[in-house]
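Backbones bend. Shown next:

***
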Amino acid sequence: MHTFELQHSPQTLAEGIAEYYQLNPSLAKGRGTSREAQEFFRCHDAAHVVFGCGTTLSDEAIVKVASVCGTSGGFGVLHGYRLHESREICRQLEKLEMLSTALKAPILVPRTLFHCLRQERRWPWSNFERYLNVSLCDIRKEFGIRVARDGQSRRGT
């Protein structure tokens, strides 16, 4: 498990994002050429860190639900998934991983919705800069965010 994925991570948001990019160097280089895609992925990647998710397809599903239900972006976040750059990423997904995630969805989606409904307030989707030097532990406490899998095995669930 990575430090940013721990519920009580002492890392700042900036440190968590740096760790996320260190683990996923291709993401740090930027995805997409459009300004809109760059902004979407900046916010999306911060959501990965705040909600304590890696880049497995199951984690992507959790981040998608949490972005809609647990951030100020709401359903407007879905527009980012319709961008050319997002669709290109989806075309590269393996069918077996997609099937595995679909089978897990009846558990992942309700659990994520439950966590989002219990939040104190929604995470700011795009205006989160003031939190870059705040610890993830304090952010999660302030917003009532519970990471998806703290203390659980990372074997694809």
Q: What stands out?
A: Residues 95-117 form the longest helix (23 residues).
